[in-house]
Amino acid sequence: MPRDIGQLSVVNQSRDAFYRFDVPSSRMLAISAVVVLLLASIGSVRSAPYASEYPVSNSYSNGDRFMGVTLRGAIKLSTEEVNGLKPRELSGLAWDADENLLYAVSDDGHLVHLRPIISEQALVGIEIINAVPLLDKAGIKLSANLTDSEGLAARNSRNGARDDTTLLISFAEPPRIEHYLPNGTRLGQLDIGIELREALTDNGKNHGLEAVTELPEFGVIATPKRPLKTALGENSWLFNLHGKIGGFLPLDAKYSELVGMESMQNGDLLILERRYSSMFKPVIFALRRVSLNTDTDGALRATVVEEVVHFDTSAGWKIDNFEGVARHEGNRYFLISDDNENPIQKTLLLYVEIHSDEIALPGTHNLSAD
Predict the structure, then answer these.
(1) Is 187 contained in some domain?
(2) What is the pLDDT of residues 148-178, one digit of tens each?
(3) Does residue 43 sit within a domain?
(4) Which 8-state DSSP code applies to residue 317?
(5) 340, 238, 317: which is closest to 27 by C-alpha?
(6) Is residue 263 domain-resident?
């Protein structure tokens, strides 16, 4: 059983004021979980207002290295309401170093402000600081048909200045990228460009914008969740606001989905990919390092240069539906799982150290405003 390690703190701060398949894969994970529950005749899960240490493996413990990462702790979050909003269905993450806050965006259209507790290089607890609804341009809470917020990136979050952080939020349905303040105030909508709009239109239902990030050289980067079918096969294509900037082969062209993305301190992209086919098959969550480089012919190429880690349920990994990733400090990263508001799924916050990101390039990736 998980060991309770402390009650969640709720602090008020004055400043903090999918297109879908008929049954999308993330929902299929939820349905699969329910079926497993019924077959096993497991009793209902009781929610408690505690953060609990969660063992993600029977074979690996905190401090152990697996593939290209060292495990640095995992926490199961409570479902206790904060400001009438539940920290559930969390799909996107962004770290704000200047405010010492971890922002998480929910599929229900709200932001949760978290403060991780790190001790001896390990994640040992969490504080839920605040939760705020995302507002429309009129200052009203988003209507239900507009709330499917999935990806998150922070701007001005590592520049040493307080109170100037803004957030980019990508939505699955209708697919778009919007600009927000951390208190939920909408600043505007980005023009994602004609190439990305056409790719989303051609790619069918539930292939919206699950992930967004930003690199100094390329600007805002986003991609459809599912690989695109082209004459060259099915690739995961990366786009900035001006068009296509490179593609790479997914783990599985038929079943893979790109669900999270983060800029690394060494200048590469960290891709979070989910491979799910059915409740009878293993689920794989993979972190993959992608490098964007210009070839000698002047063409831009996206290349998977490292399979950082694969968490495979058939190999004993007790993981949930990871959909968001954010760099913390140095080469440390958080991953968050979307529980689909299913009582037998969990909202997990996983903390890992990525060894290939140990040496930073000159300068830092402070993201500027529009």
Answers:
(1) yes
(2) 999 999 999 999 999 999 999 999 989 999 9
(3) yes
(4) B
(5) 340
(6) no
Total number of domains in the chain: 1
**pLDDT given at position 231:** 54
Whether residue 174 has a cis bond before it, omega within 30° of 0? yes
Range of the domain at 342: 4-244+321-357
- CA–centroid distance for 13 within its chain: 25
d(CA 257, CA 275): 6
Residues 309 and 352: beta-carbon distance below 8 Å? yes
pLDDT tens for each residue of 249-303? 999 988 999 999 999 999 999 999 999 988 888 999 999 999 998 777 777 889 9
Angle at 235 between CA 232 and CA 238, to 5 degrees: 120
Q: Which of 6-15, 206-215, 233-242, 303-312 has the lowest mean pLDDT?
A: 6-15
- Cβ neighbors of 200 (< 8 A, separation 6 or more) are 19, 175, 207, 208, 209, 224
**pTM score above 0.85:** no
Angle at 309 between CA 304 and CA 312, to 5 degrees: 120
How sure is the predictor about 309, in pLDDT bands with cuts at 50, 70 and 90?
very high
Amino acid, single-letter form, for residue 306: E
Q: Do residues 222 and 192 lie in contact, with contact meaning Cβ atoms separated by under 8 Å? A: yes
Q: Are 105 and 168 in contact (CB under 8 A)?
A: no
89 vs 110: CA distance, rounded Å: 10
In this structure, are residues 369 and 157 in contact, taking their beta carbons and an 8 Å threshold? no
Spatial distance between the Cα atoms of 107 and 89, rounded to a whole number of angstroms:
5
Cα separations (Å) of 103 from 118, 127, 132, 179?
Answer: 16, 12, 11, 14
**Amino acid type, 218:** F
Q: What is the dihedral of CA 68, 51, 81, 116, to 10 degrees?
A: -50
Query: Does residue 335 sit within a domain?
Result: yes
Q: What is the mean pLDDT of residues 4-33?
A: 42
Structure tokens at 323: 């959909």
